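Review this fold:
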Amino acid sequence: MITTDVLIIGAGAAGLMCAAQAGYRGKSVVVVDMGKKPARKILISGGGRANFTNEGASPENYLCQNPHFVKSALSRYSAQDFIDLVDRHGLQYHHKTLGQLFCDDSAQDLVDILMTECEWAGVAVNLRTEVLSVTKNSEGYLVTTSDKSYQCKSLVVASGGLTMPKLGATPIGYKIAEQFDLNVLETIAALVPFTLHDHDKQRFDGLSGISLLTEITSEDGTSFKENILFTHRGLSGPAILQISSFWRAGQAVTINLLPEYNLSDTLTQWQSEQGQKSVKNLLATLLPKRFIEVLVKDGVIADKPIKQLNHPEIKQLSEYLHAWQIKPNGTEGYRTAEVTLGGVNTDELSSKTFESKKQPGLFFIGEVIDVTGWLGGYNFQFCWASGFACGQVV
């Protein structure tokens, strides 16, 4: 049996950040992870370039049953603090729209930085190690793994959510929480593409690969202005992934297909300037031609010269394209989801230290808890912030 001050379950973003911080404070730290490599989710994120933070990260960008919970950690470890860390290591990165930061070369560069930090802090990272059981005793916690047993004063659960099971995602974090009588909220796949009902799939068959700028709104009134992408299974793209966190089974979403235009005005102007041209050909200058053809087939767009449209028809067409409603069949689930919504109830944890209020010495950080960021680097930023906060106290 190995005795250590701190044992961390999970060598992901939150776990490695916490490990380095605790190690720098002089604590003996061991990280265990089932994977062959550390931080596998970082490696595949952002198309292999890891969208590792967002310069605009603020509490408003997170879903949590207690919206105030994230304020403390985010204020104590900001996006700029993490940028300063990677700058010290000479990471080459670039800015994209909406405050997103990506590695120039490969996400591996970012993982190398985290592992270097752990090495400098004297942290032991043990991979291919499965946690078999956790028990509380007078010394803290006894953790039995497929390799060794560990006795620790502080146990940190940074095991992530259920997303991407191919990468080894398991519900172990939730099971440990429940074992120690912590409330775990229902988990749902989030930041995930929609699948469509068969009739819609048939209607849009042939549109796969088409992307367009839209403004999408959920039934609760949340909206995002980004691209949607037609796929052979349904709808994806940043706007869809964003809204999926706010969508529930059976609900519709409303999509403004022309957020940059007032279509009613545009159609009226076309009538006076290009009256002989067909409605479908003119609309095909604003929207993909293949999509327009589907709407002509459905009878939404009249196949006639634009001058023949009357006022009610203009109004109806404008309302349809500015508020196109579609009811997804479901989502692609954890297989392709980027994050897990729900998890360990934040009411069970200290917002300052992430320690369980019921079980001294037991901590939960990162995706395993009920904090879900928007798409765009926000989830990694919460991992850094929660890992840092916890690493100061374990």
Observations:
- Residues 2-188+340-391 form a domain with the FAD/NAD(P)-binding domain fold (CATH 3.50.50.60).
